[in-house]
Design goal:
Elements lengths: L4 E5 L6 H16 L6 E5 L5 H9 L3 E5 L16 H6 L4 E4 L2 H6 L4 H13 L3 E6 L3 H5 L3 H12 L5 H4 L3 E4 L13 H18 L2 H6 L2 E4 L7 H5 L6 E4 L6 H9 L2
Parallel strand pairs: 1-2, 1-8, 2-3, 3-4, 4-5, 5-6, 6-7, 7-8
Helix pairs in contact: 1-2, 1-12, 7-9
The protein binds phosphoenolpyruvate.
């Protein structure tokens, strides 16, 4: 049976003390509960080591928000997959719409990031999703298919089993406008179909597909109750411990 996962993406928020308080509160709360999904926290890079230390003693897994597409060398400001792996980082977000938009990350760079992570035994959480005008013009499936093909479909089926896909309609990220359960289910089922077409049914059935975009404790359980929605990638609502824990408990 495929894994259910809830991922908290803190983005560039919180100072060190706030980050430490947040992760320790989440870890303590969850340690007292019976949870059925994997819980992953993505702090800013400078807090990865601290977060990793907390994770060791808890149910939490830690993810990076970004990685270099290069192995190592003269790339000022970059952090390599092998450096993340030394910190025992389990997952890394790739292709978040904010990185595609503000840092002009291209499909081919994203495919290279996926390769670097897999070379270092870190699991990519690969983000895809259409813009509002693309949905309004009926192109949402074409956009998502193209992103899957260019970013992931160079992998063989064994490699693909390490991928978590996050469907994040760009119009829903940080806007308070959430996809309807039907819109989410329709796209998740389409994505699973693409994986089955490219690889096979069992690879598609094994792949965790997360929903992201204005997910909160009020809408999480209805979204997660869809057959092809295997959890969530949570931005704003992951910055409040009680809210994030409620979302985890909805999974
Ligand atoms: C995100 O940043 O991936 C995200 C889903 O953000 P939010 O939950 O704030 O919409």
């Amino acid at each position: 049976m495929r894994k259910k996962i809830v991922v908290g993406n803190w983005k560039m928020n919180n100072n060190f003390q706030e980050a430490e308080e947040l992760i320790s509160t989440i870890a303590d709360d969850l340690d007292e509960k019976e949870i059925v999904c994997e819980v992953v926290i993505c702090p800013p890079s400078l807090y990865l080591e601290m977060a990793s230390d907390y994770a060791e003693e808890s149910v939490l897994f830690i993810a990076a928000q970004n990685v270099s597409s290069f192995d190592n060398g003269a790339y000022t400001g970059e952090i390599s997959a092998s450096m993340l792996s030394e910190m025992e980082i389990s997952y890394c977000i790739v292709g978040h719409s904010e990185r595609r938009k503000y840092f002009n990350e291209t499909d081919s760079q994203l495919a290279e990031k996926v390769n670097r992570l897999l070379d270092n035994n870190i699991k990519p959480i690969f983000c895809i999703g259409e813009q509002l005008d693309e949905r309004e013009n009926g192109f949402q499936f074409d956009v998502v298919r193209n992103q899957m093909q260019k970013g992931l479909f160079h992998l063989n089926s064994d490699e693909f089993l390490n991928i978590t896909v996050a469907y994040e309609p760009v119009w829903a990220i940080g806007t308070g406008v959430v996809a309807t359960p039907n819109q989410a289910q329709e796209m998740h089922s389409y994505i699973r179909g693409l994986i089955s077409e490219k690889y096979n049914d069992s690879t598609a059935e094994e792949t965790t597909i997360l929903y992201g975009g204005s997910c909160n404790s009020d809408n999480a359980s209805i979204l997660f109750s869809n057959k092809d929605v295997d959890g969530g990638l949570i931005g704003g609502a992951s910055l409040k411990a009680d809210e994030f824990v409620k979302i985890v408990m909805s999974c």
